[in-house]
């Protein structure tokens, strides 16, 4: 306890000297008199310092009865609000009123800290404080950096009033989530240009959600809850790239903790649905929510999160996270497939090498080959010829501008599903009984609205993505050589013992997203080549990691599951995975994940192994990681 505090208690028990001083100032206070305002600010700041250092002082001031601090405090808040309502104040008045508001908010913040009785009495001024927050979050106010300190003090005062006080938190939270949209001060505070104000607001929300599932549920279910969630996710999206040690980074950490509470309460499915926009495959807010969920699931701080992914008790309002992720994955994949097919054109079909492998495996089983267009079985979309003029100019067709965003979300959902599946297996290995139903079983049993199974949808999406997105190695788009005839590529003695030897289909890489032509002339300038390479890299960056994460999920599902292995073979997925056993700058560790997936698909499955042995490699990467076509009869010796 400070020496000053001891002297006050000796001369005025209950620290009534400070209360008396403030009471006398409040009685005659006129905000239009600058001298009185400055004197009040001085006394408030001096007392705030005392309150911050000494909890006993906070209790004594709050408990004083002769006179009481609370009527004086309410009067000062009322006068401060009145002062801010003056029409057309000059710059000097605006500045001094801002100082008054900040000092009064700081005094209130310190007075109520960790003293429940003081919190209850100070809450009577919440409406007045809310009006001032509204005033200082207007567009004109946020353009003045001098106002940031005031807004921050006001939000901190509200936060301290409800901290660890369930009754007040219930009252404030239900009120704020029922206000008319134009009065939602939380959304206005989230939009503040000042990172420290945003941090203070996030702390306010976090304090309201503390230790209450009901208040967390209100954040999603209340009339204005989704609107506040939208504003919260908007601000979180703006902070993703912030440095951890910066003010923005600290604000992000607190906002992340808020959303973690939503995840832990099992409310992600409900919130994700409320963020849906009709006829939109994915919204920016849904993507931000998926980013937070993905980060949460990967966090080592939450080893038992698997419980949040499994079905909740009957009647729970939030639904089932795993079902929501599975349905979202299938919806995004279906959309991506349609967009990719439209981009690739009507000639899109299975790669020729996949067709040959499927033919070889089915001949051994004496099964009929599924119907296919024979003209397209040996020709990739990037090699379509213009029948009118005999040219071999390749081109992409309709390009869906939403496809990159869909693929970004698809990567996030895929990572979430893979993490859940792997963690469930880890958790099951530590238990006497495995987790049922297992996440893998839920995914494998799922199907799209058109009846396409999850495994088949996964293989088809991988195949189309591999056709559509150029492979980038050391900054260059890699092109696959034109394949030989179908009958020349069926070789039962072929194998993939060399990971760098791959099976490839038609020249899908000659056509990049920029519409590069088939067979560029030798006179092409270096500048043109560099431009095309840069465009190809930009296109690949828009689809970064999607091949790696999709093939990783496929490998996870196929592990020790004969039914999944057989389904991969039946939909000609083995050559698709083999084509991914390559290096790609924008799919880190793609080769390793593809090889591991191939291992899981072949493990103990002779029919799948026969498919691999039936495929003859058509190319090999040279020392510069450029794919070179095998020529002549010397293939076996390479």
UniProtKB/TrEMBL annotation:
InterPro entries: ARM-like, ARM-type_fold, Ataxin-10/CTR86_families, Ataxin-10_domain. Residues 360-374 have a biased composition (Basic and acidic residues). Residues 514-524 have a biased composition (Low complexity). It comes from the Eukaryota. SUPFAM superfamilies: ARM repeat. GO terms for cellular component: cytosol. Keywords: Cell cycle, Cell division. Belongs to the ataxin-10 family. May play a role in the regulation of cytokinesis. This is Ataxin-10 homolog. It comes from Lentinus tigrinus ALCF2SS1-6. The lineage of its organism: Eukaryota, Fungi, Dikarya, Basidiomycota, Agaricomycotina.
């Amino acid at each position: 306890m400070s020496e000053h505090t001891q002297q006050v208690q000796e001369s005025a028990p209950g620290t009534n000297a400070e209360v008396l001083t403030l009471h006398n100032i409040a009685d005659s206070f006129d905000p239009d008199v600058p001298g009185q305002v400055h004197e009040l600010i001085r006394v408030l700041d001096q007392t705030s310092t005392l309150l911050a250092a000494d909890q006993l002082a906070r209790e004594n001031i709050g408990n004083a009865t002769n006179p009481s601090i609370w009527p004086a405090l309410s009067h000062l808040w009322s006068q401060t609000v009145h002062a801010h309502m003056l029409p057309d104040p000059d710059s000097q008045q605006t500045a001094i009123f801002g100082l008054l508001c900040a000092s009064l908010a700081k005094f209130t913040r310190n007075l109520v800290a960790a003293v429940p009785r003081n919190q209850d009495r100070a809450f009577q001024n919440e409406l007045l404080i809310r009006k001032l927050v509204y005033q200082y979050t207007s567009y004109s106010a946020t353009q003045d950096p001098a106002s940031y300190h005031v807004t921050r003090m006001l939000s901190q005062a509200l936060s301290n009033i409800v901290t660890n006080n369930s009754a007040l938190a219930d009252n404030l939270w239900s009120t704020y989530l029922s206000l008319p949209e134009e009065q939602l001060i939380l959304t206005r505070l989230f939009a503040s240009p000042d990172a420290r104000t945003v941090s203070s607001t996030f702390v306010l929300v976090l304090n309201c959600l503390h230790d209450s599932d009901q208040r967390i549920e209100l954040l999603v279910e209340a009339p204005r809850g989704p609107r506040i969630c939208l504003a919260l996710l908007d601000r979180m999206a703006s902070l993703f790239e912030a440095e951890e040690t910066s003010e923005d980074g600290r604000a992000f950490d607190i906002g992340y903790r808020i959303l973690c509470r939503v995840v832990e309460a099992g409310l992600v499915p409900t919130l994700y649905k409320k963020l849906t926009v009709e006829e939109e495959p994915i919204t920016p807010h849904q993507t931000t929510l998926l980013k937070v969920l993905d980060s949460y699931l990967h966090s080592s701080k939450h080893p038992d999160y698997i419980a949040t992914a499994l079905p909740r008790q009957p009647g729970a309002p939030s639904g089932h996270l795993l079902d929501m992720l599975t349905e979202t994955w299938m919806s995004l994949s279906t959309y991506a497939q349609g967009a990719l097919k439209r981009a690739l054109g009507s000639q899109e079909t299975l790669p020729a090498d996949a067709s040959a492998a499927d033919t070889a495996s089915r001949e051994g089983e004496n099964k009929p080959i599924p119907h296919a267009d024979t003209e397209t079985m040996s020709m990739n979309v990037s090699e379509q010829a213009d029948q009118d003029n005999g040219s071999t100019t390749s081109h992409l067709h309709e390009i869906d501008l939403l496809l990159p965003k869909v693929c970004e979300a698809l990567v996030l959902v895929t990572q979430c599903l893979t993490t859940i599946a792997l963690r469930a297996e880890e958790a099951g290995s530590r238990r006497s009984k495995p987790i049922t139903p297992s996440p893998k079983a839920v995914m494998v049993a799922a199907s799209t609205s058109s009846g396409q199974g999850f495994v088949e949808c996964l293989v088809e999406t991988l195949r189309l993505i591999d056709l559509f997105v150029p492979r980038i190695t050391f900054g260059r788009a890699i092109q696959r050589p034109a394949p030989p005839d179908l009958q020349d590529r069926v070789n039962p003695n072929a194998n993939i013992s060399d990971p760098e030897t791959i099976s490839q289909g038609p020249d899908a890489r000659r056509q990049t997203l920029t519409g590069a032509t088939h067979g560029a002339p030798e006179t092409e300038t270096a500048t043109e080549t560099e431009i095309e390479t840069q465009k190809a890299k930009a296109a690949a960056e828009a689809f970064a990691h999607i091949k790696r994460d999709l093939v990783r999920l496929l490998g996870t599902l196929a592990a020790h599951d004969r039914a999944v292995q057989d389904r991969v073979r039946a939909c000609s997925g083995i050559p698709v995975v083999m084509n991914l056993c390559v290096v790609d700058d924008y799919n880190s560790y793609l080769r390793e994940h593809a090889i591991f997936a191939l291992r899981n698909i072949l493990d103990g499955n002779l029919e799948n192994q026969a498919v691999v042995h039936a495929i003859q490699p058509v190319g090999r990467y040279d020392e510069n990681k450029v794919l070179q076509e095998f020529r002549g009869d010397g293939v076996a010796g390479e």
